[in-house]
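User: I'm writing a tutorial on reading structure tokens. Could you give me a worked example: one chain, its sequence, then its tokens, then a sentence or two explaining what the tokens reveal?
Assistant: Sure. Here is the example chain.
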Amino acid sequence: MKLLNSGNAKTRKGEKSGWKTYGIHLAPAKLSGFNVCQFASKGCAEACLNTAGRGAMSSVQKARIAKTRLFFTDKDKFTEMLWEEVSSAIKSAEKQDMKPCFRLNLTSDIPWEKVKRNGITIFQSFPSVNFYDYTKSPARMTSFLNKELPKNYHLTYSRSEETPDCNLKAFLMAGGNVAVVFSGELPKTYLGYPVIDGDQDDLRFTDPSAHVVGLFAKGKAKIDLSGFVLDGRVAQ
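And here are its predicted structure tokens:
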């Protein structure tokens, strides 16, 4: 069982810019019996891309559940595997003349800054490599904006139907970025801040600061009625 994959249709878009993304798909929410998405709303859980593409295959779902259970039941083995795979992925990317980057929360919201191997985080072990994630944790986003997280770890806050606009504005005013899912079309601005097309690639650590990252509704999100997805034609 391997922990890392070498990207999906979205993350592979970054290869045209010279970046090779590697990530981890865990079983989201409480699907494995362990909660890896503490702040997931009902709309987020229902719109999750866990079953998109190859995720619809039962073998893929079983593998994601197995990885998630390993993380919670044998952290030492999990971190040993992860450190080894990151090291190998860096070498593989460099052989392809690509710059490696890692998104460890493709379908989870694990606080990786708290996960350590021999007392050291993955970010400290590979200080010259870029790591990035989306998060729905206000506390994690605040820590990122306060520069309390490792310099090589970038976070983008992810809006849900339960997120007050005042929270989004606070993060934007502090120079952070927030991801918002839209249907129809992307508005030019949202909450008074410029919107960029987050579907052009997945390289969120290269985005300009204080921007809304607009994402088009995909899969189950296309039929969302919870408010998780906003109509881009009227959202401002």
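What the tokens reveal: The chain has a mean pLDDT of 91. Helices lie at 42-47, 58-73, 75-95, 122-125, 138-145, 165-173.
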